[in-house]
Amino acid sequence: MIVLSRSAVIHSDEIEITAIRAQGAGGQHVNKNATAVHLRFDIRASTLPDFYKSRLLAASHHLITQDGMIVIKAQQHRSQELNRQDALQRLESLIRDLTRVEKARRATRPTLASKKRRLEGKAQKSQTKSLRGRVRKISE
Known about the structure:
Elements (H helix, E strand, L loop, with lengths): L1 E2 L5 E2 L4 E6 L7 H5 L3 E7 L7 H9 L10 E6 L5 H20 L12 H19 L10
Antiparallel strand pairs: 1-2, 3-4, 4-5
């Protein structure tokens, strides 16, 4: 069971986890044992609140399919249990990230002192650059 907030909980029976063989190098262990994990979570069929469902379905993320399934493949570790924990942790962090409500930004104006500092800096930079020009000969 994953607890996201007081109102949002994902029960273990909503998550489908299957063991598969991992890809890539690893020798005999990788070829014989199903250590990788495929996690599938159906957003529409879950018991998540409507706010969570709408935010997840509206998000454009590579782990969310068109029909509202979150598919996570974990094969980082050598043991199936560690890969299972990794997949569950990635599911939790994905849901938390996509449903986080950002604080609304209020537009502010720069202060008078910051405007003066900016203009003084520009004047100083202009003065420095004007001194970089070609040196003229003074005719006697």
